[in-house]
Amino acid sequence: MTLSPVNSTRTSVLPLEMEREYPILISGYGAEVIDAEGRRYLDAMSGGSMAATLGHGRNDLIEVARNQAKRISYLNNEWLTNPWAEDLARELIEVAPEGLGRARFVTGGAEANELAIRTARTYHVSRGDIQRWQIISPAQSYHGPTMETLALTGRPGLHGAFGPYLPKHLYIPPSTTRFDETGKEALDALDDALEEAGPETVSLFFCEPISAAALPAYSPPNLFWEGLAERREQYGFLIGFDEVVTGVGRTGDWFAANRLPIVPDIIATAKGLGAGYAAIGATLCQNQIYETIARKSESFSLGHTWDAAPLSCAVGLAVIETLHAEGLVEHVAYRGPRLKNELETALIKTDMVREVRGHGFLLGVEYADPRDGFSLLPRELGVAGRIDAAAERNGLLVLSTQPTGDGYAGDQSLFAPPFTTSEDELAKMIERFAASVAEVAAEVDAQLDNRPEKSSP
Ligand SMILES: Cc1ncc(COP(=O)(O)O)c(C=O)c1O
Predict the structure, then answer these.
(1) Quick check: is 179 in a domain?
(2) Domain that holds residue 237
(3) Is 284 found in the same domain as 360?
(4) Span from the CA of 345 to the centroid of ligand 1 (angstroms)
(5) Same domain for 82 and 159
(6) For residue 3, is it left (φ>0), alpha (ψ between -120 and 50) or beta?
(7) Quick check: 27 pLDDT over 50?
């Protein structure tokens, strides 16, 4: 077994980042993970991707998976169904926002988002509205690495070399407190996009209700959501929410949509549904969307091999039962605001910290140039990466995002621990995170003191 950290010259895996030294993690329990050299880290990112909402090494979920695998692990769902998929759909609908009465299973977030797009298009075509295909979405987002989901973000840096394969969509800029505090400019941009597309051709407005990695824990003001709902009414497009991260409890509600003054037509969710114990996602739609499609078509074709497999659905069902039995969504709702305050208090002394925001156990920290407390930090300082590296040295896993080329987002960190993290672990996470940020901020201050001028965002 390989035990020491590997880089691209010492691995047979094609790594995501060639220059990085990858620590090798071999086990985990609760909110703690252990590397091959025996070092322990607190996992403030729920497995790195925010999926491991119930922590690592849960014997009850492992037992469910083991028993299900022994009974029947896999069946394709094209010609038959199974009790675990049926029960999971019912349970999910029970906790979903009003009217979302049908669910279909896939294996992850990007697939759930793609299914949301197919559902919207099938609905319009079923109604004879065949000209509706275009999608409008906020540019600063992340919806997955498949060509369609990648195209939904308007971030050329993320598109990289794949531009020629990506379908063209319309984007609006984010209404962050930095650019558009009220949400009015985002609505104006939406109006422009609708006009550019021709509103009768628009199928879907697709977005994260509360952003995950792209703008950690940010959600536009109510004015935006209310204006979006009015435009849906006026122009007839659908609204789809990417709740791949926020769904199944992360923000202290079963779905983040419940926190907003708008009910979506379609929701895609994934990570927390399998809680890191199974690869599963789901797309939910409003009853009237299902009924329209059902009236017109005998089938809703195209699926993946592992859709609604007994193994993943049984685990999903056990995850939902655990959330209910342990009152974890309520716990996240109750504990989240205090966690945010504690993080704020720990970071307040650091000038480089501009904002701490979020809901439940999805918190975001935004950094700014300490010389004016507002401008984005110079990109070349690589602050996000340095914070993650400092945290790792201090025994903590967090995830920070680098500034984007278009200036929509600067250096930011996500803080998203498992719902089951103990009080003692939460306190240690905050302490280690604040120490890591302070360490990098002191270096940055020294570097900026030597710089003649503030660089523009
Ligand atoms: C908001 C959001 N949507 C979609 C995805 C893609 O999900 P997956 O990696 O399961 O395909 C992610 C993954 O990080 C995400 O954060």
Answers:
(1) yes
(2) 72-325
(3) no
(4) 30
(5) yes
(6) alpha
(7) yes
Ligand 1 binding site (Cβ under 6 Å of any ligand atom) = 49, 108-110, 113, 142-144, 208, 212-213, 242, 244-245, 270
57-70: per-residue pLDDT in tens?
Answer: 999 999 999 999 99
> 444 CA distance to ligand 1 centroid (A)?
31
Expressed in angstroms and rounded, the spacing between residue 127 Cα and the centre of ligand 1 is 30
Write out pLDDT tens, residues 279-318. 999 999 999 999 999 998 777 889 999 999 999 999 999 9
Three-state SS for 336?
A: helix
Give yes or no: residues 155 and 295 share one domain.
yes
Same domain, 12 and 86: no
**Mutation to probe ligand 1, out of 106, 245, 283 (largest number of atoms < 8 A from CB):** 245
> In this predicted model, what pLDDT tens digit does every residue of 203-220 receive, in sequence order?
999 999 999 999 999 999
Nearest of 362, 255, 284, 270 to residue 315 by alpha carbon: 270
- Residue 269, strand partner residues: 243, 282
Phi, psi of 450 (to 5 degrees): -90, 0
Q: Do 276 and 381 have their domain in common? A: no
- What is the 445 CA–ligand 1 centroid distance (Å)? 34
Q: What is the pLDDT of residues 386-407, one digit of tens each?
A: 999 999 999 999 999 988 877 7
| CATH code of the domain covering residue 313 | 3.40.640.10
Counting the structural domains of the chain, the total is: 2
Is 121 inside any structural domain? yes
C-alpha span between 28 and 41 (Å, rounded): 9
Report the residue among 114, 117, 142 best suited for mutation to probe ligand 1: largest number of ligand atoms under 8 A from its CB.
142
Give the domain-ending residue among 325, 341, 364.
325
Assign residue 81 a region: left if phi > 0, alpha if psi is -120 to 50, beta otherwise? beta
**Burial class for 325, CB neighbours closer than 10 Å (0-12, 13-18, 19+):** exposed
